[in-house]
Amino acid sequence: MTLKVVLVLAVLSGFVSSRPPTDNGPGHPRGPPSPPYLKNVSDDARKEFFDIVNNDNLTLAEIDTQLATWAESNDISDSYSEFEAKKASYIAEIKAKVTSVVSNLPTVQSQLESIFENKDQTRSAQREQLDELRNKYPQEVGVILKLVGLIGLGFQKGPRDIGRIGLPRIQ
Ligand SMILES: *[C@@H]1O[C@H](CO)[C@@H](O)[C@H](O)[C@H]1NC(C)=O
Ligand SMILES: *[C@@H]1O[C@H](CO)[C@@H](O)[C@H](O)[C@H]1NC(C)=O
């Protein structure tokens, strides 16, 4: 499995397990809403559910197996499977999008570099080019600019002894 896929899965596997065990409400302010089938089970069953998903001693596969058993014994296997299938297709969709963005990065990077390095244009022409590229590849441009910021060559601010680098504002 590639790194990007691992990252996406790491984020998404927090989907359910990051929820606090006592939260029975319609959704945590910072998390996803509870799976809809949780509304149809007893308080005890709901507690069992959270005991499973929040048990750090279980492997992810063990959590899946125990949840399937839990769903069966609470007579909601259909809703459970339906939700799991939706989750799987959502994850697949994100993986496909990430793959596409990652594969576009080299070409967008070189286009960005050409835009920034071409001095035979006015600033406003440069800005237009950037906007165009950004409209075409919003996520790719966003990722590259974030990387530039992370690595430290801020587009708007350079190191102290350089000050403003003088590139156009792009955010
Ligand atoms: C909850 O139970 C109701 C009544 O049996 C049913 O109509 C509904 O589909 C169930 N919802 C879920 C998410 O299981
Ligand atoms: C997890 O394992 C630790 C160490 O073996 C144990 O103390 C703890 O009770 C276990 N937690 C659960 C929820 O089983």
UniProtKB/TrEMBL annotation:
<dbReference type="InterPro" id="IPR052823">
    <property type="entry name" value="SXP/RAL-2_related"/>
</dbReference>
<keyword id="KW-0732">Signal</keyword>
<dbReference type="InterPro" id="IPR003677">
    <property type="entry name" value="ANIS5_cation-bd"/>
</dbReference>
<dbReference type="Pfam" id="PF02520">
    <property type="entry name" value="ANIS5_cation-bd"/>
</dbReference>
<feature type="domain" description="SXP/RAL-2 family protein Ani s 5-like cation-binding">
    <location>
        <begin position="45"/>
        <end position="145"/>
    </location>
</feature>
<protein>
    <recommendedName>
        <fullName>SXP/RAL-2 family protein Ani s 5-like cation-binding domain-containing protein</fullName>
    </recommendedName>
</protein>
<feature type="signal peptide">
    <location>
        <begin position="1"/>
        <end position="18"/>
    </location>
</feature>
